[in-house]
Design brief:
about 240 residues; mainly alpha; two-stranded antiparallel sheet; 8 helices; about 5% strand; globular
Length: about 240
């Protein structure tokens, strides 16, 4: 196993441990009877309630999700035909891995607080901090995109970037600052917007950045000197 994967698994183990501790501590403090919020709408308002058992199972889901995501991230490079490129861009891959683990811990902490705070909890604050954490993750991703190499699991993967190293490099140099801008605007929006717009603004910014990057990748490929490289086979 590559050293960067071992480092990622250490962070995964840390996320699983922290979310498990949050789960255990929160579960024991939940009321034995009565309705407990177990799901929230985009604006942070509880839209489904359950009993003590359902709330506990909801809390238990995050350690399992953290472990599952970490294992997927550890195994994915082994199945990539261009695994050596992930190794070359390991700092970018690891940075995203760590960011995902930290975001999962943040989300779980917010869920635990919303379950135990009761009716007086500010529902919007939960969504606000999750959006802020997500925006920071997008900034990290944008910062490292120009440092990636062509792969099937990570980056702006289009038919044009995957068929031309020049198109990949140009696209990711373009997309990196674009995603950082989207993340920065989303971070500001996390504290400026309210209600449904609080949740939607970051998604809209990410989709816009992704769409522009995809379109740009085509034009980068059109002008790439290696776009017509092939095996020369006729059958």
């Amino acid at each position: 196993m590559k050293p960067f994967a071992k480092t990622g698994l250490i962070w995964t183990a840390g996320a699983v441990l922290v979310t498990s501790l949050i789960t255990a501590g929160t579960w024991t403090s939940l009321p034995a009877t009565g309705e407990i919020p177990v799901h929230w709408g985009p604006d942070g308002t509880p839209d489904r309630f359950g009993g003590h058992l359902e709330a506990g199972l909801t809390l238990l889901a995050m350690p399992v999700i953290s472990l599952f995501v970490g294992l997927i991230l550890a195994l994915a490079p082994s199945f990539d035909p261009r695994k050596e490129n992930i190794e070359k861009g390991r700092r970018a891959y690891l940075a995203v891995w760590i960011s995902v683990m930290l975001l999962l811990v943040l989300v779980h902490g917010g869920v635990a607080r919303m379950m135990t705070a009761g009716p007086e909890a500010e529902s919007g604050s939960f969504v606000r901090w999750v959006i802020a954490g997500s925006a920071l993750m997008i900034i990290v991703i944008g910062n490292y995109l120009p440092k990636t190499r062509s792969s099937f699991f990570f980056g702006v993967r289009t038919p044009w970037t995957l068929s031309s190293d020049i198109a990949w490099e140009k696209t990711h140099r373009f997309a990196g600052p674009l995603f950082m801008l989207a993340g920065g605007l989303g971070l500001a929006g996390a504290f400026l917007f309210n209600g449904i717009w609080l949740a939607l603004q970051l998604s809209a910014l990410i989709m816009a950045a992704a769409l522009v990057s995809v379109v740009y990748s085509y034009f980068a490929w059109k002008g790439a000197a290696d776009r017509d490289d092939g095996t020369g086979l006729t059958v």
